[in-house]
Amino acid sequence: xxxxxxxDDLPQSRLLAAILLAIVLLLAAAPLLFGGAQAINTAAKIxxxxxxxxxxxxxxxxxxxxxxxxxxFYGIGGYGVGLALYGWGPTWSSAGLGLSLALLAGxxxxxxxxxxxxxxxxxxxxxxxxxxxxxxxxxxAQFSEFTGGEDGRSFRVPEALRPGYSLGELxxxxxxxxxxxxxxxxxxxxxxxxxxALRIVNSPFGRVLQAIRENDFRAEALGYPTVTYRTVAxxxxxxxxxxxxxxxxxxxxxxxxxxxxxxxxxxxxxxxxVIGGMGTMYGAVIGATLxxxxxxxxxxxxxxxxxxxxxxxxxxxxxxxxxxxxxxGILFVLSVYFFPTGLVGKMRGARAAADRA
Length: 357
Prior knowledge:
two-stranded antiparallel ribbon
């Protein structure tokens, strides 16, 4: 049953399996274990970014495509749901129609980009996607009457997802609010999408993508139309990013350039893929979890460390919370140096070495 659910792609490491199980259990029980708003927001963000990073790894890790337009598709999903709820009212039909239109637009745009650009060399494709993403971000900021511009749009969500809504009370758990319902909508959707991505990369289609990544000339010689496969992979990754953006909009009840279209988010996605391990879907889980936790809690840990080392002015200054990005960068460099294949690759490699011994 488990093997079928994971598409016969088991963690292959007891340590990795234990870490993944702990992450899934903590995310599943987050509303019950943590009462603070920051903890729940962090858990929801991890769920969204697991989908976003997994969809990007489908391009970078499994197909060998470097794209800088992934946040554009993420933004299309967010704006599609957000503007539909803002303009057509806070109903499920509005959210569904907005998400459907966003999926259609995102997939069509990915298809167009793929057909016109995936015949060129990788670096040129990366530059083309960067240009398209930049143009889309400018358009979202300039059409302020429609998108809200730099300020974005706040909107209401369906009643069942609102904090004031009560679904009832369960023994030993207590009242179930609309915020809890919204969280489990995000969690369950993220789980389904991740398992779908796992199924894609372990299918015959996914094997062809990996063959193209390793040697596209040989794959072409064997009769596989590489441009077609790359274009389909680009469309699938874009569709997953659109869905992640829709989930993020439903959770935040806000859309704006900073939360969906920022190039900083694209850099974060790249870092998560590298930290977790390219070409390993489980790397998306590990990378997204570690990075989002560091983003949300590293400053607090540094503040506590700075206070504890007040007697050492130089150390306290280095540990000041304002320097959290510096330490995050150092941690990233160290992780790349010591784990060049990512954390998942390192754990799987250690297990393989132990089995050979």
